[in-house]
Amino acid sequence: MSKIVILGAGISGHVAATHLRRKLSKQHEVVVVSPNSNYQWVPSNIWVGIGKMKSEKIYFPLAPLYKKKGIQFKQAKAISFHPEGDKTEQTPYVLSEYVVGNQKGQQEKITYDYLINATGPKLNFGATEGLIPGKNKAYSVCTYSHANHAWGGLNKVIQQLKAGKKAKILIGTGHAKSTCQGAAFEYILNVEQELRKHKVRDKAEVTWISNEYQLGDFGMDGMLMRYGSLTMKSHEMIEMIFEDRGIKWILGAGVHKVEDGVAHYENLEGEHKSETYDFAMLIPSFSGHGFKAYDKNENDITEKLFKGFMIVDADYTAKPYEEWSVRDWPETYQNPNYKNIFAPGIAFAPPHSISKPRKSKNGTDITPAPPRTGMPSGITAKLVADNIIDSIKGGKKSLHHKGSMGNMGAACIASAGFGLTKGSGVSITTFPIVPDYEKYPETQGRQLGKTFGEIGLAGHWLKLALHYAFIYKAKMKPFWWLIPE
Amino acid sequence: MTQRISKYQRFKMMNPVIQFFKFIYLSIKIMVVVAGGHGGTRNLN
């Protein structure tokens, strides 16, 4: 009998838990530990943030589902990792603290045979002075509750615009090393469309602010893509969309301070500037959770497990951009020091960024961090689960399943406006996510054809279809496993 | 605001009939890209 403990119940943790439970017999324990009571389908947050979808539509409680399916659920937060046990507990464990109910505040040593760290990122608002969701007229859409607040703030501005006032709207990244430009990109297009729907577009100045060097970088170094019969660069495509929508842009901006209606930033020229706004949505930087790890003698071994995020089978050797290789990226998400610990999704420490690193003239790093959206999070979680299943069933360690972001495709179906007949979407797929310049030297590291962009109503339908399909899958309804990650 | 997308292009982008077929096409193409497999990189090169 084996016990698999999964930390986190987001896309990655939930995918791993559901596949493990489906493929392993009931004699094996699957335990999910998460401080959150709900599963949420994060990609639909942007529709909550424009008031087009109730937040109840994008989340559901985990406890009843897990009880029905035979997955143990502990609503608790991880405190520290003990991969060798300790003097009194021989089995590896994670020290966790319950966050609700009668057990609130109680700590428990949750032992495991296999551990999947799917804790995702910490939304590091604290890294940008004054960037607090709902304060200083700045909002976030990173969680459904943040998105609800954002809609409240946006609606207020729309009412002011209707009353004849003018307003400035600023959307993008709130830190020099933020990621998730895609989410901000979706949000700015949706907000712009809502302004047009409310017939107040002419009264609002909409501006994109980002740490990207060029539009369409998306933390992936941009891409060369097929667009209809054309081959174009992603920055050309996004520039076309922004110009067509009348959206201004500020690039290479590392926002470091937010005050009431003012975002202060440094650009790559080393200039310190500020941008005023009446409503802002700024994505914070992501960081690890600051977990500590201890060996059996209670010595601190955090550096064996964490480098901000969790250390996995990546090549972390520091080297210049010109020497980066697709082979630097992990394949199995296994910790090299403790082979029964894995970190799929956003929980693993990337070897480096994907975009070319850039510094301002003052030496400030202004580079997007690598994105790891729902799709790679799901794929990496499933392959980790499959390797654990093979190891348990085969009786010997197996790492047969591999999935490097350098040999994996991803689709970014970006909503560009909500509405069954008036909506729009920008559908972009890229293969591979991390460019492989050795395999595809003439097409900027990507396979043309599999890397393409489309704009239109179909993109909105597709995003909506994915919303319902993935909620269905997450609820483990009949034949849920037929829907790919 | 600069009109970068022509009226004809916009018509094609928003026409429900054309977009229905585009929806089918995109669904299949995305399935091919995403569900078409993944793997390691270290043994391939």
Automatic annotation (TrEMBL), chain A:
Every FAD/NAD(P)-binding domain range: 3-146
Record Pfam families: Pyr_redox_2
Domain of life: Bacteria
InterPro entries: FAD/NAD-bd_sf, FAD/NAD-binding_dom, SQRD
Annotated segments matching region Disordered: 353-373
Gene Ontology MF: a single term: oxidoreductase activity
PANTHER family: FAD-DEPENDENT PYRIDINE NUCLEOTIDE-DISULPHIDE OXIDOREDUCTASE, PTHR43755
Name of the protein in its database record: Sulfide-quinone oxidoreductase
UniProtKB/TrEMBL annotation, chain B:
Keyword tags: Membrane, Transmembrane, Transmembrane helix
TM segment ranges: 20-39
Superkingdom per UniProt: Bacteria
Transmembrane found in the keyword field: yes
Protein name listed in UniProt: Uncharacterized protein
Organism: Winogradskyella arenosi
